[in-house]
Amino acid sequence: MQRTRFDNRECPVAQALEIIGEWWSLLIVRDALRGLRRFEAFQASLGIARNMLSRRLKALVAAGILEKRAYSERPLRHEYRLTAKGRELMPVMVSLLIWGNRWAAPAAGPTTLLVDRATGQPIEPRLSLTGPPLRPDEISLATGPGAGAEMRAAFALMRAAANERRAAAPRSANLDVSSKTG
Amino acid sequence: MQRTRFDNRECPVAQALEIIGEWWSLLIVRDALRGLRRFEAFQASLGIARNMLSRRLKALVAAGILEKRAYSERPLRHEYRLTAKGRELMPVMVSLLIWGNRWAAPAAGPTTLLVDRATGQPIEPRLSLTGPPLRPDEISLATGPGAGAEMRAAFALMRAAANERRAAAPRSANLDVSSKTG
After folding, report:
1. Which region, left, alpha or beta, applies to residue A120 given φ > 0 means left and ψ of -120 to 50 means alpha?
2. Per residue in A124-167, pLDDT tens?
3. Closest residue to A26, CB basis, from B17, B127, B129
C-alpha cells in the first residue's frame, strides 16, 4: 500500500495551488486585494519586467481570477479587477499575512498590520465555525513598526490606487488602506 | 512615484511565501497536518523522488516548520513533526481547501470535505473577528462525492498514519481522518 504512487492531484489544496500557480500570481492577487488595478501600479509594486507581468496577468484572467475591463475609451485603457473567485482568496491572503507577521516579521516588528477599518486598531481574525464572517470592508491595512522605505512606497501605491477608485466610484470593498494610514 | 521599483520583500505575505517556499513544501505541510510523519508516508503521498523529498524535508526543518525526531532507537528511525510555526499554517491550508472546493472541484463535486470531528457533518469555517477560534481537534477530513482512487489512497495513508500515532500516543491534535471516513 505504501508503495502506491500518486501526486494527489485530486486534493483541493493541490487543485487550488495549481490554479493560483506561482508565488508571483499570489503576489498579484495580494496587490489586487490591496486595491491595485492598473498595469503600471502592479509593475511599480512588483518590479518585474513588463512582458513577464503581462504574461502573469493574462494567466490570472484565463484562470478566472482577474477580469480585464476598459476604464477609458479614448485612449483605450484597461484595468484588472478581481472576480468573485479572486476576491474569495482573501482568507488565504489574510491567513498568510497573520502567519507572516507572527513567524517572519523583522526584529523591529511587523511591517504591515491588519486593522479595523473603523477604529484603526490592530485585529487578528481567526477561523471560526460560528462567528460572523469577516467582511472585506471591515478591514484595512496600516504600516507597522517594522515598515521601511519599501513598505511606505507600497502604501503610497495603495493610496494612489484608492484615490483613482474613489474618483471613479465613491465606495469600494477592497482590502483598502484607510486615508489615515501611512 | 509609479516608477519606483521594489519587489516588496517587506510584505508579510511575501515573507510567508518566501519561507514556505515552493508549492511542494506546502503540500508536505498539508500532509503533515493530515497526520503523516514518516518519510515513506510522505513519499507515497507525494510520489516524488526520495532525494528530492529528502531535500525538501531538510529545508522545512531548517525553516523551523518541521522537526525531526527519533521514534525508534534500534533501529534508529526518524519522523517529521510540525512545530508550532508549522501547525499555525493550518488556517492557510483550511482556506486553500475551502477555496479549492468552491472554485476548483471536479464536476462530480469536492473530493475532500472538511467535517466536524464529532458529528461528521461538513463544515465551512470562516474568518471572523469575534467567533471562538477553530481548534484543530474539532475538525476532520472525509472523502467527498468527487473522490476517486487517488483520494481514497490518500485517506488510506492518513488512516495508516493515524493508527501508528494512536499506537504511540492515545490522543492527537492533528487534522486527522476519523475512523468512520473513507
Report:
1. left
2. 999 999 989 999 889 999 999 999 888 898 899 899 998 988 88
3. B17
User: Complex ipTM above 0.90?
Assistant: no
Could A10 and B160 be called an inter-chain contact, meaning their C-beta atoms sit closer than 8 Å? no
DSSP structural state of residue A136: G
Strand partners, B112: B143
Residue whose entry in the numeric block shows the C-alpha cell 519522523 = B79
Instruction: Assign 3-state DSSP to chain B and report helix, strand, coil percentages, each to 5.
Output: 45, 15, 40
- Are A27 and B14 in contact (CB < 8 Å)? yes
CATH code for the domain defined by A12-87 = 1.10.10.10
Q: Where are the domains of chain A?
A: 12-87, 91-119, 136-177
DSSP secondary-structure letter at A135?
Answer: P
pTM of the model as a whole:
0.87
